[in-house]
Design the sequence.
């Protein structure tokens, strides 16, 4: 047989849907993977199954009510939304909150980061079939969950913040208890770091998988551990610190965790080491917490203003954009969750990898669908689907009503 | 010349053996028990409790799961090949039961030396390997019959697994056959128990290869690519539900019994334990006593169960300490490491048998 008429056997292309309901996904999302044999040749990412119109509800609520609504945006990083909204309202009111309140707010944020990262680590272990480490790491996550319950009274939705400060104080007994817990936690997290790096079956599954090169990461504006795993210096705690991060960064004891690997392993390493760093930060916050009041009264009517509050959530940069109009309700409230930024690089990461790696690549950005989802329009006739922003939806809506005038 | 009464009694006894002990009922009992041991050990290794509420420490949980699945709705996808789809669970169950009938649990034929299973004939080792390959082929077909994309991917992966680990599995079984010069399971067990302890050194590498390949054959972590739940949603099993899924689960548990039983029979000395103590009281008198009287029925069964349970715990420990491999990694490991190791082992066994053992004076 000559090379001219040599038959090239191509494995049949099959489109495998992952989602909207799939065991790899903890929340609904849709990924259409076109595979040739085991290799992914194309990936289409669709989100929008979890839209709850929280921003619209928020416009009818007072700022104080919105705090509790904001914490319900996401079950895992509830403290970040809650705290960032409080921060945004304080910026708008140009109110300064007491030092101790700043420290407690930051402490809750860091504890939230610890529990979120350990949760992610467990999920990552589960996605590659390493259920033992999943079970063990979630058991040890209970230490930090107990701490949060001890401080705030709730395991998940902490609701510690109020406009002008925090709701609960931290007693000396609680401080001692937490310092003891941190020692245990640090030992365990160091163990999981070693497991993740030295356990061959796990490392082989994440090494070189889901490559996101630094230029691509920059172009798709990756944030959080996804960006830092590709070597981008994106961390709001260091770049644009607020609250107690300002004195903390002035000490110079803490550094941004970076990895230039760019694969899932890089993101995993960044997250695990960041957890240890977050434990150290929490320890510093507890030891250097100033005395004083925990709350400053802020008038419920916020002056007309337009602010942008930034905060480094466990998944990356979280932005709350708030327009106030002089009443006790927001004029416009926009949440941009970190997952939204990291979506854009997803198709690039998936392409060229194996089908078996799809769950861990999807999980590697630590997606949070309920934080992210916006309006999706599904056309029942030709089964197309498209995502529409609020402004476009309003324009389209007006056009539709113009074209279809109400019959007199 | 047998009287009709004798024949009837013999027939009844054989029926009882096939259906009750050590036949279908006993094997099913063992399957559910081993599932409990596996789940409990796996859970304890992971610092969990495992089944807790049904029966003593949840010992009846596998039975309850089975019964509950029997009562669930039985769905057949529209695109599936109905007849073949319905046939797969039955075929799997029958294949696994037939395989398990060969296990030398109690002596069914006192006339022949060694402990015989219900089924036993010269060359049954080859037949057992054929059955286990047939089982894998049935799994491949099950995925394609369900005409589900996850199922087809799972089937393709099962096929890959089959071509990777079937060969080391077979090569590992060559060593015991080579040492005893027989292809009959009961004879191999019997002859191996009479060999000098020096032969244990030859059995270590095949034992390791066999246990690893067995884990792959049973599709458990780290080789559970064909029904990885987070990737392809239980692969070839995805469309099976209700009674069919119950039967498939039972068949898999019986394959676990069979696999652990094969390790016991071929590498761990079968249902013999006290006979290995080199004192005449045990090795001659006790062995003769249990081989000829009814005590053997209880003693052999308990020893067999004890050894199998140890194998199950080793298997569930393997399931605990590893992450799931990618199919490419599995095939690479199999062909770059397991197959060469198995072949080198065969060469080593030959060299030891021809050159080293005669020098050392091992009989």
Sequence:
């Amino acid at each position: 047989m000559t090379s001219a008429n040599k038959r090239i056997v191509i494995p049949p292309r099959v489109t495998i849907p992952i989602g909207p309901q799939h065991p790899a996904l903890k929340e609904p999302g849709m990924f259409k993977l076109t595979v040739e044999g085991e290799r992914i040749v194309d990936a289409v990412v669709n989100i929008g199954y979890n839209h709850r119109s929280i921003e619209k509800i928020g416009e009818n609520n007072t700022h104080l009510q919105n705090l509790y609504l904001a914490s319900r945006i996401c079950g895992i990083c509830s403290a970040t939304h809650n705290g960032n909204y409080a921060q945004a309202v304080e910026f708008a009111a140009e109110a300064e909150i007491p030092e101790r309140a700043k420290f407690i707010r930051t402490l809750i944020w860091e504890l939230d980061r610890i529990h979120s990262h350990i949760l992610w680590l467990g999920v990552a272990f589960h996605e590659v079939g390493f259920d033992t480490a999943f079970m063990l790491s979630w058991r040890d996550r209970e230490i930090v969950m107990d701490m949060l319950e001890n401080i705030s009274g709730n395991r998940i939705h902490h609701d510690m913040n109020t406009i002008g400060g925090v709701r609960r104080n931290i007693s000396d007994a609680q401080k001692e208890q937490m310092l003891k817990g941190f020692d245990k936690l640090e030992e365990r997290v160091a163990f999981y770091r070693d497991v993740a790096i030295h356990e061959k079956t796990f490392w082989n599954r994440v090494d070189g998988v889901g490559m996101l090169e630094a230029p691509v990461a920059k172009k798709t504006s990756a944030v959080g551990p996804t960006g830092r795993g590709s070597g981008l210096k994106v961390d709001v705690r260091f770049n644009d610190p607020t609250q107690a991060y300002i004195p903390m960064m002035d000490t110079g004891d803490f550094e941004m965790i970076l990895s230039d690997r760019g694969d899932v392993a890089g993101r995993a390493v960044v997250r695990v080491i960041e957890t240890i760093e977050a434990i150290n930060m929490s320890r510093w916050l507890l030891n250097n917490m100033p005395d004083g009041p925990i709350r400053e009264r802020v008038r419920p009517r916020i002056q007309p203003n337009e602010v942008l509050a930034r905060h480094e959530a466990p998944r990356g940069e979280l932005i709350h954009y708030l327009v106030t109009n002089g009443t006790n309700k927001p004029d416009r409230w926009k949440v941009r969750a970190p997952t939204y930024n990291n979506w854009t690089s997803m198709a690039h990461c998936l392409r060229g990898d194996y089908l078996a790696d799809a769950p861990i690549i999807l999980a590697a950005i630590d997606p949070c669908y309920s934080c992210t989802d916006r309006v999706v329009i599904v056309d029942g006739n030709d089964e197309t689907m498209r995502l529409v922003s609020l402004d476009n939806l309003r324009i389209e809506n007006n056009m539709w009503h113009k074209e279809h005038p109400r019959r007199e | 010349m047998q009287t009709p009464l004798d024949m009837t009694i013999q027939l009844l006894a054989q029926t009882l053996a096939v259906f009750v002990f050590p036949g279908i009922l006993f094997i099913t009992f063992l399957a559910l028990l081993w599932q409990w041991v596996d789940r409990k050990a796996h859970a304890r290794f992971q610092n969990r409790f495992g089944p807790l509420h049904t029966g003593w420490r949840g010992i009846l949980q596998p039975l309850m799961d089975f019964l509950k699945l029997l009562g669930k709705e039985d769905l057949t996808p529209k695109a599936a090949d109905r007849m073949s789809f319905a046939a797969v669970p039955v075929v799997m169950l029958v294949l696994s039961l037939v395989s398990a009938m060969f296990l030398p649990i109690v002596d069914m034929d006192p006339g022949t030396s060694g402990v015989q299973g219900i089924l036993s004939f010269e060359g049954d080792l080859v037949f057992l390997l054929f059955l286990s390959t047939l089982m894998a082929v049935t799994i491949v077909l099950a995925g394609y019959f369900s005409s589900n994309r996850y199922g087809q991917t799972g089937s393709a992966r099962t096929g890959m697994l089959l071509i990777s680990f079937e060969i080391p599995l077979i090569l590992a079984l060559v060593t015991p056959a080579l040492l005893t010069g027989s292809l009959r399971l009961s004879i191999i067990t019997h002859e191996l128990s009479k060999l000098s302890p020096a032969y244990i050194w030859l059995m270590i590498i095949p034992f390791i290869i066999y246990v690893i390949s067995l884990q792959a054959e049973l599709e458990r972590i780290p080789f559970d690519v064909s029904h990885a739940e987070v990737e392809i949603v239980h692969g070839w099993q995805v469309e099976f539900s209700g009674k069919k899924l119950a039967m498939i689960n039972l068949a898999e548990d019986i394959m676990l019994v069979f696999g652990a039983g094969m390790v016991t029979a071929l590498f761990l000395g079968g249902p013999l334990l006290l006979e290995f103590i080199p004192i005449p009281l045990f090795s001659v008198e006790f062995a003769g006593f249990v081989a000829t009287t009814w005590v053997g029925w209880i003693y052999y069964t308990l020893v067999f169960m004890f050894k199998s349970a140890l194998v199950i715990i080793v298997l569930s420990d393997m399931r605990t300490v590893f992450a799931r491999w990618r199919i490419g990694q599995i095939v690479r490991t199999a062909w770059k490491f397991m197959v060469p190791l198995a072949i080198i082992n065969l060469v080593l066994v030959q060299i030891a048998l021809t050159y080293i053992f005669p020098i050392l004076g091992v009989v």
Q: What stands out?
A: Chain B has a mean pLDDT of 85. The interface with chain A takes residues 45-48, 149-150, 152-153, 156, 221-222, 224-225, 228-233, 320-329 of chain B (CB under 8 Å). Residues 71-242+260-360 of chain B form one domain. Chain B has one domain: 71-242+260-360.
